[in-house]
Write a structure and sequence with these properties.
The protein has 54 residues and is α+β, with helices and mostly antiparallel strands. Helix content is 31%, strand content 9%. Strand 1 and strand 2 form a beta hairpin.
């Protein structure tokens, strides 16, 4: 495990529920099908290569 990894993991667990509670109508600007997920060496999704511009 890298030294800086615990903080982003903690944020990834805390932020989505907090956002959905504060902004219950928050939705993606594009359909899910338009998102491309990048796989890392661990085969777990690590993010999207680019977000669509509005």
């Amino acid at each position: 495990m890298r030294a800086g990894a615990p903080l982003p993991r903690l944020a990834a667990r805390i932020i989505p529920p907090m956002l959905s509670g504060r902004f219950p109508d928050l939705r993606l600007a594009v359909p899910d099908e338009q998102l491309r997920v990048q796989a890392a060496l661990s085969e777990q999704p690590q993010g999207v290569p680019a977000l669509p511009r509005s």
